[in-house]
Write a structure and sequence with these properties.
Helix content is about 55%, strand content about 15%. It is an alpha+beta fold.
């Protein structure tokens, strides 16, 4: 590391000396050039001042002050012809030249972070995504002050000698945990002395998170299916073997087998439903529906289930037509999932109510919202579980959920459907005093209705 700092200090020091000498030479030359270009004007003013002193009443002090002011104005005011001559005589500094180079322009057009280094590892230029990724990144510093991973620094040091691109993957823990892939590519071959090094960065954090989510999903789905399948296989083997002629065993095993088969059916139906919702996630619904119709259909569908569960269901309606852009079947599925969860995990013989409320528009640019809340009087949910309830297969109590026929996918389906409808889901719970699941949907404007 010390060798790299020493190597980086040399080009920085030489660059500063070059800039200082150029600035001094340019300043001196600029002053002389401007005075020479205005020499005839200075002579005329000097003659006028001398005449006023000799023939008039002007004092020498005032004449000298006026003459000095004129010369100062000539020296300080810019002149286009002088500036053009100086630009031809004194070229731009390397940093300014690099900012206009094709490589710099190309890197600024790329969406990924790009850093251009010299052979010593000093930053020559960087694009906007790179500056957004590393707040301390700027031209002139050594790359080791930004990325300290030894594998990456070794790749930068070896790039001019190796002559080919090398990709290094490293983990960044502060200020935000990330996993990055860095490609180090020399822009000159080993025999060339003046070559740059291109550093291209890719953020792998989101990709790896999605891959991990997919792996967890497959593992959970396999586990959920494997358990009932193992039970069915065991019962079938028992009925085919030792209990083949045992009517009592058949009477005892067949209901359990039917229950396990129903569990697998529910899980497969939930998986298919989730898959359909994900396939249509990028297609916003275009139909205009009245949420009062959805609430009425949900009440007719869920009241028999409430009676079988010994629960009481109370469904409110909006006082006026509640028109939204949506898919009627999907919104009905949202309500059914939320109410059935309230039946499963609420207090036995308890009360579940669906509340409907309209939040008026806040202005011409902000549409109103329709709010539907499913409220139960059950035992509630501990606060630490609330942020994860919409994750696939996440359960507060795994065994209790399985016993009650839960698949762990109901709230995930709700979240995906509401995302497609540009809606929101809010969950609140007070342990011991029940829970509320609130969905919010944007009101369909009158202008939208006329356009359709």
């Amino acid at each position: 590391m010390s060798n790299q700092v020493e190597h980086s200090a040399r080009p920085i020091a030489s660059g500063l000396l070059w800039r200082a000498s150029q600035a001094l030479r340019r300043g001196t030359r600029e002053l002389a050039t401007r005075l020479w270009a205005a020499l005839w004007q200075i002579v005329i003013v000097a003659v006028i001042m001398a005449s006023l002193v000799t023939l008039g009443d002007l004092s020498v002090e005032i004449a000298l002050a006026a003459f000095a002011s004129f010369v100062g104005a000539v020296a300080l005011l810019p002149r286009q012809d002088v500036d053009l001559a100086l630009d031809r005589e004194f070229p731009q500094s390397p940093s300014l030249t690099r900012s206009n180079s094709p490589m710099h322009v190309m890197s600024e057009a790329l969406p990924d972070p790009v850093i251009l280094l010299d052979r010593a590892g000093q930053v020559l230029s960087c694009n906007a995504p790179a500056r957004g990724l590393f707040t301390s990144l700027r031209e002139g510093i050594h790359i080791s002050s930004v990325i300290r991973t030894p594998e990456f620094l070794d790749a930068v040091s070896a790039a001019p000698r190796v002559g080919e691109a090398v990709t290094v993957i490293y983990a960044q823990r502060v200020p935000v945990g990330r996993r990055m892939a860095v490609t180090v590519a020399p822009l000159a071959r080993g025999s060339e002395r003046e070559g740059s090094i291109l550093v291209l960065l890719r953020d792998l954090t989101e990709v790896e998170r999605i891959n991990q989510m997919r792996a967890d999903f497959i593992a959970n789905a396999s586990h959920e299916l494997r358990t009932p399948l193992a039970s069915l296989r065991g019962f079938i083997e028992t009925l085919q073997g030792t209990a083949k002629q045992d009517p009592g065993a058949r009477e005892r095993f067949l209901p359990i087998m039917a229950e396990q088969a129903s569990r697998m059916t529910r899980l497969i139906d939930a998986l298919l439903s989730l898959s359909r919702v994900e396939m249509n996630a990028h297609l916003p619904p275009s139909d205009r529906i009245d949420l009062n119709d959805v609430l009425g259909h949900a009440r007719d569908t869920l009241e028999p289930i409430a009676a079988d569960s010994g629960m009481e269901l109370d469904v409110q309606r909006f006082r006026q037509p509640a028109i939204v852009r949506g898919d009627r079947d999907e919104l009905l599925q949202v309500l059914q999932n939320l109410v059935q969860n309230a039946f499963k995990y609420g207090s036995p013989g308890g009360h579940v109510r669906i509340e409907a409320k309209h939040i008026p528009t806040l202005g011409r640019q902000v549409a109103g919202r329709f709010v539907i809340s499913v409220v139960d009087d059950g035992p509630g949910i501990p606060a630490e579980h609330l942020p994860r309830l919409t994750e696939r297969f996440y359960r507060v109590d795994v065994e209790s959920s399985r016993e009650k026929g839960g698949t762990g996918l109901g709230l995930a389906i709700v979240k995906h459907i509401l995302n497609r409808h540009h809606g929101e889901l809010a969950i609140a719970s007070d342990p011991g005093n029940g829970s509320s699941f609130t969905i919010m949907l944007n009101e369909s404007r009158v202008s939208e209705a006329r356009a359709s």
